Amino acid sequence: MSSRMPRGRFVAILGILLAIAIVVSSIGAPYPHDWMIENALVLVAGILLISTYRSLPLSRFSYGLIFIFLCLHETGAHWTYAEVPYNDWWQSLFGVTLNEVLGLERNHFDRLVHFSYGLLIAYPIREVFMRVADVRGFWGYFLPLELVMSTSMIFELFEWAAAEVFGGELGIAYLGTQRDVWDAHKDMALATLGAIIAMTIIALINARYKRDFTREFRDSLVVKHPEPLGEEALDRMRQANQ
């Protein structure tokens, strides 16, 4: 018998802890409207996870990674990403700010969370791809990376649109560029880097323990259907219907 905690209980505990984190995040938030905008995405994610729990329950590992990421997000939602006082926390422990130690100038909490998005969410995406689309080999690592990159781009567009719509201090607080014209590019690059690291780790683990890893990886790159698509596929469909 497995000694692991039942999945239902594990997910329920994570759900309760996340609900507590959301409530704590809301208390005394300096920008309440920004907090609500930030949590709109959390609400969407929660509805998606709950609605698919019976038809597509994820592994405990995936739920745990998602939970950690959402807790990081709630930290940013409370203060806004540009104002999370990690330097004050570090200085209270070590007598010097983290930015001074690393030679940084701006608040980099948003960079951490974008990196964490790729690092923590790429595996749950991989699990969905493998179980729903039945991807294997190379595509089981490449497609999660691609989805992380594309959703990072979509989020940056969403940030831009929200800042344009709300404008003023709320728009600036939500956008959080801190006067860096390359902010969106760096955020997307860090999410991509996180996903590359995550998929590399998973690939190394599979290479170590999965006997057919090399064959599966090689077979996934073999052409399965040599006939061209496009207009030639259309001709074949027309002929089949005649």
- Dominant shape: globular
Order of helices and strands: HHHHHHHHHHH
What's the overall average pLDDT, rounded?
A: 91
Termini gap: 58 Å
Strand content: under 5%
CA radius of gyration: 22 Å
Which structural class do you get from the secondary structure elements? mainly alpha
The largest sheet, given as strand count, sense and whether it forms a barrel, is:
none
Number of DSSP helices?
A: 11
Task: Give unreliable regions as ranges.
Answer: none
Can you walk me through this structure?
The structure is a single chain. This protein has 242 residues and is an all-alpha fold. The chain has one domain (7-82, 98-222). The protein contains eleven helices and no strands. It has helices at residues 7-26, 32-51, 60-79, 86-94, 98-102, 109-133, 139-166, 168-175, 183-209, 213-219, 230-241. The chain starts with 6 loop residues before the first helix and ends with a helix. The mean pLDDT is 91.
